Amino acid sequence: MTAVGDVRRRRIDELAARAGQVPEGEGGVSLTRSAIRRLRRDPVAIIGAIIVALFLLVALFAPLLAPKDPLAQSLLSQIRPGYIPGSQEGYPLGVDNLGRDLLSRLIYGSRQSLMIGVVSTVLGVVVGMSLGILAGAFGGWVDTLVMRFVDILLSVPGLLMAISISVLLGQNQYALMIAIAVTQVPIFARLLRGSMLAQRNSDYAVAAQALGVRKGRIVFGHVLPNSVSPVIVQATLSLATAIIEAAALSFLGLGDPDLARPEWGAMLANAQNFLSVRPELAVYPALCIIVVALGFTLLGERLREALDPKFRR
């Protein structure tokens, strides 16, 4: 069996080399390894990965990186009507309207954004993939029923649905995560369902059915593993959307009811009352949201291209 496998592998490598997919003298590589190789040579992907890595490090090690207690009103005595202290010794970015260190609050705010983004995206992936598996594996009336439910979710604008769910569930972090997750469910459901339908009619699936392999084994052992790559890419892009939506809901007052806890969207909303006095209070959290969302978007887009066979050269 080993000798036959080696002969087949050499034959495949020769055919791929003739087609220009694999340089002469190199063995075939998996799609994952090929994608990593292309990402390492892509400057845009590297920039996105660096931004994401820095965001994760700041969020995880916020207690070590923050120079001050984000809740301590250290310079409250210096604040007067029409004046908020700016950058000074020990406070690189100055303080907010309550005398709290702005840099420390931005650092701790990254933890809130990361937690909300990751939890809501994971919830959206789990529920969306469950619906996608039902539709893609069974087809027929199950597919029709699931997709009509997904169409109902898609008929409502995402932000409007998130606002409605947040209002219904109450003003807290858990409601915020659930609201964002619900807006992402139809995206993952349709994506996985379409990918599974394409894989279900492929040659290997038809051959397995002809050999009498159980449908469950075909779906979960072959079709599903070959269909999850687009979902992984979309999850990376959805993290950026989740962070923006979390900031938007917090900006509208539908986020964490504890306004003392640092969160970029809430900080941005609070700064609206002091734009004429110190506009930096709004600029810094807005930049944090934009840069982090940009990092996830750049990495996700390049990951999509790296995993897409149409872009393999």
In short:
This protein is mainly alpha-helical. It contains 13 helices and no strands. It is elongated.
Mean pLDDT: 82
Structural class by SSE content: mainly alpha
Radius of gyration, in Å, reads: 25 Å
Q: Biggest β-sheet: count, sense, barrel?
A: none
Distance between the termini: 32 Å
Percent of sequence in beta strands: under 5%
Low-confidence stretches: 19-27
Count of alpha/pi helices: 13
Number of strand elements: 0
Helix content: 55-70%
Overall geometry comes to elongated
Instruction: Give, in order, the helices and strands.
Output: HHHHHHHHHHHHH
Give an account of the 3D structure:
This protein has 313 residues and is mainly α. Helices cover 69% and strands 0% of the residues. It is built from 13 helices and no strands. The protein has helices at 2-18, 31-40, 43-60, 62-65, 102-138, 140-154, 158-169, 173-200, 203-210, 215-223, 229-251, 264-270, 280-307. Helix 3 packs across helix 5 (102-138), helix 5 (102-138) crosses helix 11 (229-251) and helix 7 (158-169) packs across helix 8 (173-200). The two termini are 32 Å apart. Residues 19-27 have low confidence and may be disordered.
